[in-house]
Amino acid sequence: MRRVIAQGTFDILHPGHVHYLSDAAAMGDELHVIVARAANVTHKPRPILSDQQRTDMVAALDVVDEAHLGHPDDIFVPIEEIAPDVIVLGYDQHHEEAAIESALAERGIDCEVARASPRDPSHDDELLSSGRIIDRIVERRC
Ligand SMILES: Cc1cc2nc3c(=O)[nH]c(=O)nc-3n(C[C@H](O)[C@H](O)[C@H](O)COP(=O)(O)O)c2cc1C
Ligand SMILES: Nc1ncnc2c1ncn2[C@@H]1O[C@H](COP(=O)(O)OP(=O)(O)OP(=O)(O)O)[C@@H](O)[C@H]1O
Questions:
Q1: Where does the Cytidyltransferase-like domain start and stop, copy by copy (predicted)?
Q2: 140 partner at 20 to 30 Å CA-CA among 8, 32, 84, 127?
Q3: Ligand 2: residues within 6 Å at CB?
Q4: 65 C-alpha vs ligand 1 centroid, how far in Å?
Q5: What is the ipTM of this complex?
Q6: Is 16 annotated as a binding residue?
Q7: pLDDT score of 81
Q8: Atom of ligand 2 at shortest distance to CA of 6?
Q9: Domains and CATH numbers, the chain
Q10: From the alpha carbon of 68, which atom of ligand 1 is closest?
Q11: How far, in Å, from the CA of 70 to the mean position of ligand 1?
């Protein structure tokens, strides 16, 4: 049983998220997803949807075995609990594979770090970014 972890904000699901999670699921047998707490999303605007709603929506996807709301202060706590064989980073995530690998090794966690592939739009008007979906809502409804 090869356990995989994927993680992210997942504010307003779109096909790019489904692609990432399907890619991650294909790297093992059981996919666990850690959903970032809004309080820890500091590199972009705060999510629109609550921590619980984002976690519930990720949990509802077929490719996901379990969705976990992230830890408030220590990202390694859920990893220690899940005990994954591989952590899959999104194609554009700012985290460095090497930095995560060395932090895992320091904690004695034996786990690979891999990176998922991007999904390109399948048609002209496909929006593959929560931020761009929100921008369009603001443009069209405000
Ligand atoms: C291996 C790993 C574990 C993470 N665990 C948590 C966590 O427990 N709690 C949390 O709030 N954020 C956690 N994060 C941070 C977010 O999931 C995510 O990297 C970031 O906030 C959102 O990035 P995005 O723009 O790709 O959605 C983790 C990140 C990584 C790489
Ligand atoms: N088009 C895409 N192709 C592949 N993976 C994607 C795509 N869009 C998002 N992801 C992945 O989904 C995960 C969660 O992404 P995130 O919640 O940051 O969504 P986002 O739409 O990129 O957000 P934002 O528009 O606010 O930057 C990340 O690992 C990201 O790499």
A1: 5-135
A2: 8
A3: 8-11, 16-17, 19-20, 44, 90-93, 118-119, 128-131
A4: 18
A5: 0.96
A6: yes
A7: 97
A8: 29
A9: 3-141 (3.40.50.620)
A10: 8
A11: 7
> What is the model's pTM?
0.97
Which residues have a Cβ under 8 Å from the Cβ of 4 and sit 6 or more positions away? 24, 25, 27, 28, 29, 30, 31, 32, 84, 85, 86, 87, 88
Percent of the chain surpassing pLDDT 70: 100
User: So what's the pLDDT on residue 142?
Assistant: 87
**Cα–Cα distance between 20 and 26 in angstroms, integer?**
10
Residue 130 pLDDT grade (very low, low, confident, very high; cuts 50, 70, 90): very high
Confidence at residue 132, expressed as pLDDT on a 0 to 100 scale:
97
User: Would you say 39 and 65 are in contact if contact means Cβ atoms under 8 Å apart?
Assistant: no
